[in-house]
Amino acid sequence: MNQETVRSFSLLLSATPRGARLARRFTTEQVRAWELPLDPDRAEHIVAELAANAVTHGRVPGRDFRLTLYVIGGTLRIEVTDTRGDRRTLGPQHPGPADESGRGLVIVEALSDRWGVTPGRPPRKTVWAELNFVPHPAPSSALTPALKPAGSAPAPTGPRIPPSR
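That's the ATP-binding protein sequence above. Prediction below.
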């Protein structure tokens, strides 16, 4: 049976600039805590754009947004869920050089391996992005002979006898 380790982190944040800042910081710290072999800045930039969109375009007074991070196999999935499912998320816009906004999803598209929008239970929607990475190999419980420290004794064979009490 092939079992993959699934890690998850989820947090409800206020739909304010402070909530967006906290989303970025929590993402960076969680990616570091999980010791994922990817640049935490990539994940932080994606969350910055998705959280800013949730705060700017998905905000309903009194309702929060949710940040969720999943690791399944070699993929980090970032989800930001807001309460404006009635507002469709358009694809990346290509603003002019003088425009001050409109680049968020262009950045998400450039930094992620995949991204999309999933409608949720009304009134929610989730904008997600995925980052692929090569997972660390699972630690082996037995050292191969080539990796045993020099001068170490051979592994005991036969039945293990517990110490007497």
